[in-house]
Amino acid sequence: MDHLYYKEYYNLERKHWWFVARERIITSFIVKLLNQNKLSTTNLNILNIGCSTGRSSEYLSKFGTVTSIEYDQFCCEFAREKTGLEIIHGSITELPFEKESFDLVCAFDVIEHVENDELAVFEMKRVAKSKGLLLITVPAYMDLWSHHDVINHHFRRYKSEQIKNLFNLEINGKEVFSSYFNFFLFIPIYLIRKVSNLLNSGRNRPGSGSDFEAFKPGILNQALNYLMGSEKLFINNNIRLPFGVSFLYSWKKD
To answer: Element (H or E) spanning 157, and its range?
Structure first.
């Protein structure tokens, strides 16, 4: 990701409808996940991989002690300065922790950035405690591939079967729950990206070309936040949304 983009990203993670709605979905799901597995909701040892500008570590901290790791050196320094968080510079494919160190291991929209996603998932499993939980989100469907993915240095977008196959490798465990999300906005986002790809419009915009660049605070931002965030009601009632722009997956180590 371009270094100048991180400065924009700091505000986006805290105000843009997609990030705020994703936060609502993730945090409410974690409460459900912990209660179902009879784990503390306030005293966990948590690893947050790919913390970017730090917002995910901030909201994970309500569930316990968070260890944050970020691959990009500039982003580490920027986020430390802006948030005061202790952030480790490191890679998901070579996590600098002993095996069975964490109760909850998270990677929100991270493994799509990693060429060797099998190794990334293996490392997440390795550092999770026995009976520990893993939680990830990823962008869904290669049919949605656009200049946004190029700008954000994605290697791929995923279908549910691909994620399930990744987690079936090596260290044993079982899926807890999975679902697509950003379901209600899938069709308009799909159409916008298809038209954008045909017109090469992302490449011709003066800024980064990311979808997030069009962010404007206001009523529309609030409405989209509410619409996407409402999907937590389905997910928290074990209703799997059949498709969406993103995918959520949780897994428990044996």
So the answer is: none
| Segment 86-137, tens digit of pLDDT | 999 999 999 999 999 999 999 999 999 999 999 999 999 999 999 999 999 9
Query: SS3 for 2?
Result: coil
Q: Tell me which residue has tokens 């389905």.
A: 234
Per the document, the length of the chain is 254
**Residues 111, 200: Cα–Cα separation, whole Å:** 26
Torsion angle, alpha carbons of 21, 27, 29, 33, to 10: 170
Q: Report DSSP state, residue 254.
A: -
Strands 128-139 and 246-253: antiparallel
Per-residue buried b or exposed e for 26-36, using 16+ beta carbons within 10 Å of the residue's own CB: beebbebbbee
Collect all residues with Cβ–Cβ distance below 8 Å to 249 and sequence separation of at least 6. 135, 136, 137, 138, 160, 163, 164, 167, 175, 178
Q: How far apart are CA 247 and CA 148, in angstroms?
A: 17
Rounded to 5°, angle at Cα 175 from 65 and 63 = 15
pLDDT for 170: 86
